[in-house]
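Hi everyone, sorry if this is the wrong subforum. Our group has a chain we'd like a structural model of before ordering constructs, and none of us has done structure prediction before. Sequence below.
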Amino acid sequence: MLVLIEYPPCSTCKKAKRFLKQKGLAFNQRHIVDNPPTETELHAWIETYNIDIKKLFNTSGKVYRDLRLKDKIDSMTRDALVALLASNGMLIKRPLLIGDDFVLIGFKDAEWEASLS
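Answer:
Right subforum, don't worry. Here is the predicted structure as tokens:
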């Protein structure tokens, strides 16, 4: 079963949901603020799918800017970055689509099409 980790007011998340529904794909929804990815999940995704941790950050978000992470991220350890991501769902780029053998970060129509075909 697919899991869409989203922030419901986000327009990109709405596009992703519409895409999944148009494809007739069943998915569970998970609110990224109320139930953010855990450190364990993040570590597993990073390791299993060779994800660059920086791609998980919502660099255009207010929390990212307020924490001035652009200036700090390169000097932080991976464990510290994962802990930070797990502590606040608004730091995570959204939506995330979790499948049995993939994690998609952000919504890109062509990428999602290729992964879900």
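For your construct planning: The CA atoms of residues 40 and 82 lie 9 Å apart. The first helix runs from residue 11 to 22.
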